[in-house]
C-alpha cells in the first residue's frame, strides 16, 4: 500500500516542476532585453514582488516553522535564484538608469522586512502552529496577489474581444500549479496556509482558461458592415422608418 508520505512527495515534485515553468515564463522577455541590450519600458516590480514572496515561503517551509515541507523550500529557493537573476539582468541592461537604484532599495527593504519577520517568529512564537500561522498570513497575502494579478488581463480581453495579451500556457500553468499545491495541502499534513492561496490560484487560473476558451474558440466576432451605395440607401430608409415609428 502506498503511504500518504510518498503520495505527498510525488505531488510536491509535480508541483515543483509546474512552478518552475511559472518562474521561467518571463524568459522570452529577458531574451528580448539581451538582444536589444536595453530594458526598454519593461518594469521590474513583478520580479521584486516575487523575490519577497519566495523568501517568505522558503522561511515558511523550514523545519523550525512548518515541519515536513521541504518541497516548499526547494521550489521557492529555486524561484528566488531565478528572480534575482532576472533583476541582475535588468540592472545590467538598464543603460539609462530607469530603475537600477529602485531595485537596490526595494531589495534592501525586503531583506530588512524578512529579518523583522524572522526575529518576531523566533522570539515571540514557540510552537510550530503559531509560527506557521504568523508567517503563513504574509505568505498567503503575497501569493494571492501573485495569482490574482493576471485577472487584470481578463478585463482587457473582455474589452478587446481578443486573447492576444493572455498567454494560454501561463493561464494553464497557473491553474495546474494552484491545483497541485492545493492537493499537496490536503495530504498527510493538512496545511491551510497552502490551501487558501493556492485554492484561489486554481480558481483564478480556471477563470482565465474559461475566458480564453470562449474568446479564442467559441466567440465569433460580428461581421463588419461595409456601406455601399445601395446599402447606404437602404440604411437611410431604415432610419426614416425608425424615426416615423417613434413619433
UniProtKB/TrEMBL annotation:
Membrane topology (UniProt): Multi-pass membrane protein
Superkingdom per UniProt: Eukaryota
Entry's localization field: Cell membrane; Endomembrane system
Pfam families: MtN3_slv
PANTHER family: BIDIRECTIONAL SUGAR TRANSPORTER SWEET8 (PTHR10791:SF236), RAG1-ACTIVATING PROTEIN 1 (PTHR10791)
Similarity annotation: Belongs to the SWEET sugar transporter family.
Protein purpose: Mediates both low-affinity uptake and efflux of sugar across the membrane.
Protein name as annotated: Bidirectional sugar transporter SWEET
